[in-house]
Write a structure and sequence with these properties.
It is a single chain. By secondary structure, the protein is of the alpha+beta class. It has a single domain (54-268), classed as Aminoglycoside 3'-phosphotransferase, Chain: A, domain 2 (Alpha-Beta Complex), CATH 3.90.1200. It is built from nine helices and ten strands. A three-stranded antiparallel β-sheet has the order 1-4-3, covered by helices on one side. Strands 2-9-8 form a three-stranded mixed β-sheet. The protein is globular. The termini are far apart.
């Protein structure tokens, strides 16, 4: 018998009602051609019931459609950098790592200021407190954060986000390839179905950088579909590693090991000694 539901049980740090709110928030963009989001069937503190996605095989056409639909989801917008999805309740934790949402009254006026404080330094302070990073690593990331906060890496949002007139993009927030499922219908208009978000308001380039971090079988086709639908700002490829610092540092907090050296090496690309 074909199963039609997928049941996710609460584990350590899981906030299932919050995840359901994030899924519904992202799904609001579907009416405007945004990428399909897995359907929430029911949720409580202990259990999230979703539709079971019938997956298909990768194709160039589906990848192009995925990129274009992702661009339209981003353009649905968010009211400020770091905002929680509408309907969110509870604490913003990923396992033992806190990934804070930002209240409107504390919102930064630019992406760089938000990313410096609420992503980079949030994780770095946790790593210093745990003894994983010492004074030299702290200073390295402080220098990156200083440049971010000063606006040196601020760049326009992609074209559709700018045209929508929204303060920032509506992000999935954990857009690695395992959370992008190929739709079982080869003609599906959006190519893929997204699952397991950590959604918030941010810069669209952050989602794309996350998609590149751990690899995607047709990444360049997704990016081509995205850029054709919503042109990316000049120099976006040079900023990919900068946007990847946040998920790398989150993995440092969660897993340590190899990620520590990788995050440090990436940060060194974005400091200026002149």
């Amino acid at each position: 018998m074909l199963r039609t539901q997928f049941v996710k049980s609460a584990g350590y740090g899981d906030n299932l009602p919050g995840e359901a709110a994030a899924l519904r928030w992202l799904a609001e963009a579907e009416k405007n051609g945004g990428v399909r989001i897995v359907r929430v069937l029911s949720v409580d503190e202990d259990e999230l019931v979703e539709e079971r996605v019938q997956t298909g095989v990768p194709s160039v056409a589906a990848a192009r459609r995925t990129g274009a639909a992702l661009a339209r989801m981003h353009a649905e917008g968010a009211p400020w950098y770091g905002c929680a999805p509408e309907g969110w309740t509870g604490d913003p934790w990923c396992g033992r790592a806190r990934t804070p949402y930002v209240a409107r009254e504390d919102a930064a006026s630019s992406w760089g200021a938000f990313f410096a404080e609420h992503r980079i330094m949030n994780y770095v302070r946790a790593l210093v407190d745990s003894g994983e990073f010492g004074p030299s690593e702290l200073r390295l990331f402080e220098r990156v954060a200083e440049r971010l906060a000063a606006g040196e890496f601020d760049a326009p949002q992609p074209g559709l986000v700018r045209a929508a007139g929204v303060p920032c993009a509506r992000l999935h927030g954990d857009l690695w390839s395992g959370n992008v499922l190929w739709d079982g219908d080869p003609e599906a208009p959006t190519g893929s179905v997204l699952i397991d978000p950590m959604a918030y308001g941010g810069h669209a380039e952050t989602d794309l950088a996350m998609l590149a971090l751990f690899g995607h079988p047709l990444l360049e086709e997704v990016l081509l579909g995205y850029d054709e639908e919503s042109p990316l700002a000049d120099g976006w490829r040079e900023r990919v590693g900068l946007h990847q610092l946040a998920p790398l540092l989150l993995h440092c907090v969660l897993f340590g090991g190899w990620y520590l050296g990788e995050a440090v090496a990436m940060a060194r690309r974005y400091v200026c000694d002149n």
